[in-house]
Design a protein that fits this description.
Oligomer: single chain
Number of strands: 14
Number of helices: 9
Strand content: 25-35%
Shape: globular
């Protein structure tokens, strides 16, 4: 009896959040350990299906860096990185698109459908969903007092526009979109885009109630290694300057800030290694991870 009462309390706790997010869009960036561990993969699929059944509209954007690396190694193609980004020539781009769109995307769609959902796989090429241009970054000058040099990353892209019509059509038919982070340029060429950036741009365009980035860390921590449960968007750059935010967390939080500026309500850095992380973040008073607010 006590177990039954405990379950009832959980349902009651979730009631205000079920009301709040009914018919709202949640954009989830799926990556890290949650894409590898079999039990976490199953939990992810069930969480997403549950969201759809209770009237919430999940949109999934996935990564796939480790899978791309394996294929490139098999094909004996060497990966070069500049400032943490893979230099992507034409041959590498072919592999990236093949792996992200043809393998990883279909595996996620199959996983959701196998557990009773209705998922459809997309890339940014479909319906011109994600329009892109080449990303330009500046390198350190070779000589003192010389201007910084423009670095050519090849077919690494950044989002210029999101055309949500195809997502709206799928939502109207109760499908769950699963998006590979490949964009298309004005010249029709494919571009490899960071999945966090794609998720942030889509969350902004859809005025999502939440952007959720699943990661392999507990969340953002302070100087004493304690979890920060909430951060205001306007404090992010100061925290970067103070060294509180560093490394790979910098682009993630800037992505969250950009999504909030573009129209998303809230963003979250969530530990995808936690069982049912999505549900714990959305439907409990305490939540998990770090919330970023406007």
């Amino acid at each position: 009896m006590e177990k039954g009462i405990s379950k009832a309390r959980v349902l009651i706790e979730s009631l205000p959040y079920l009301r709040e997010f009914n018919q709202q869009t949640i954009v989830i960036k799926y990556g890290g350990h949650a894409m590898v561990d079999e039990e976490l993969k199953r939990n992810f699929a069930l969480d997403v299906i549950l969201l759809k059944y209770i009237g919430i509209n999940p949109v999934i954007v996935h990564g796939g860096g480790p899978q791309i690396n394996k294929f490139l190694e098999k094909m004996q193609i060497t990966s070069n990185y500049i400032q943490g980004m893979r230099v992507t020539d034409g041959q590498t781009m072919d592999v990236v698109e093949m792996v992200l769109v043809g393998k990883v995307n279909k595996e996620i769609v199959g996983l959701i459908n196998h557990h009773g959902g209705r998922a459809v796989g997309l890339s940014g090429r479909d319906g011109d969903l994600i329009q892109a241009q080449q990303m330009k970054i500046m390198g350190k000058p070779e000589a003192e007092n010389a201007p910084p040099e423009l670095i050519d990353l090849g077919r690494v892209g950044e989002v210029t526009q999101v055309n949500p019509e195809i997502l709206e059509t799928l939502d109207a038919q109760d499908f769950i979109p699963v998006i590979a982070p490949v964009g298309v340029g004005d010249d029709g060429q494919a571009y490899n885009i960071n999945a966090d950036l794609v998720a942030g741009a889509i969350a902004a365009k859809l005025n999502a109630a939440k952007l959720m980035l699943l990661t392999d860390v507990e969340g953002v921590k302070d100087q004493d290694d304690k979890l920060l449960t909430s951060i205001q968007k306007d404090n992010i750059e100061r925290m970067i300057e103070d060294g509180i935010i560093s490394g790979g967390m910098i682009p993630k939080l800037r992505c969250c800030a950009s999504a909030l500026e573009g129209g998303a309500d809230k963003a979250h850095i969530v530990d995808g290694r936690q069982e049912h992380a999505i549900l714990l973040e959305m439907f409990t008073h305490k939540g998990i991870g770090t919330e970023i607010t406007a």
